[in-house]
Specification:
heterodimer; A: alpha+beta; Nuclear Transport Factor 2, Chain: A; five-stranded antiparallel sheet; 5 strands; about 50% helix; disordered N terminus; B: alpha+beta; about 25% strand
Amino acid sequence: MRPLTSRSARRRPLAAAAGAAAALALGAAAWTGAGWYGAAHDDALAFARARDAVATAAGQGVRDLNTLDHRDVADGYDTWEDSTTGELHTQLTEGREAFTAQVREARTVTTAEVLATAVTELDERAGKAGVMVAVRITVDAPEEDPAVKDSRLLAELTRTESGWKLSALSPAPLGESAPAPAE
Amino acid sequence: MATTRHTLNRRRRVTAAPAPPAAPAPASGPRARGAGPRERRPGRTAPAPRPGADDRGGGSGRNPGRVRHSPGVRRLRPRLPLPVLLAALALLLGALATHAATQSAALRDAPAARNTALTDTALTSEVQGTVSQAVADVFSYDYTAPDETAAAARAVLTGRAVEQHHALLAPVTERGPEQQLVLTTTVTHSGVELIDGDRARVLLFADQRSTRTGEDGDTTYAAAMFAVDAAREGGTWRIAALDTFPR
């Protein structure tokens, strides 16, 4: 019996120390695990990620829709159709033939640089968003100096199965009538 | 790790030895390794310098006296490494805790998370409203009251924006009295791109109506777009820089 007693006696402090360490570690893991779960399921964080996804999609969509090379209209137009959904997509699809002929005739190369995007509305549940996009468009036509134009665009985006896509795009109207009410 | 285990094993052996005649509790690591009661263990063919093999055995260095009762050792073996199991568990959980902490920190410190534009609706509309009003004030000018523009500039501009505003408005202020200029800036659209603590960035679309009331009086409209860096100083948001997207 003596070896047993002495064995458990000398093992106990070790087991106790290891047990305490394990308990501490369990507490820490539970605490940080809860924090991780919270961060992963935080509504504000999810909303922030959606906002950034919308801003990126709007910038990309506007760049796509203002980029077209007359030597490769088919591919360019495919990209246009890919970046859009809903009403805008329908309009583009319907206008494809006429537009293609027009671009081939004018032999223009259009490129765009997105200067800034700002999400103004985001309804995650409805899958709709509004974005302001500032864009600089350069049109290169043969035998002409490139024309550079800054555009103020208002984009509406809709969430689809393959991410956010442009469903409407229009230039911000210039208030012609005297003192327009500030928004 | 190995060193700790050596030390533990050595401590066990030292405590276990009923009467340590030959090895009076060695003090230093390397020497202690080979000098324990383990060497005197019966039936062992590899005596002195095999610390590695011995330690990998897990339970073998533990109790020299028990080797004689080998069936008992077998039976008890699952219970023996309890401290080792607990230590391993502690390590595992510790690693888990570290991982979870890293992950949640990454999520919360991501640029998307730091930017509270739109997620903090109250702050977003405060920034939006203040900056839009400030822009309208400092980019409006009336030749009959040029001091109002200057006063507005002093109130809402800070840092680099002071100089930028001065340069942008110079053509208006210089010819203003002579041409009887009235410039009215109306912000039509504004969107907060970013709010990070006391910094913010706002994109603005504005209409600028410019009226010359002099002899060849006329009114022109211009569309303007620019971004504003705002900074919160003492609870008030001020324009710190203007970005007119120069070519």
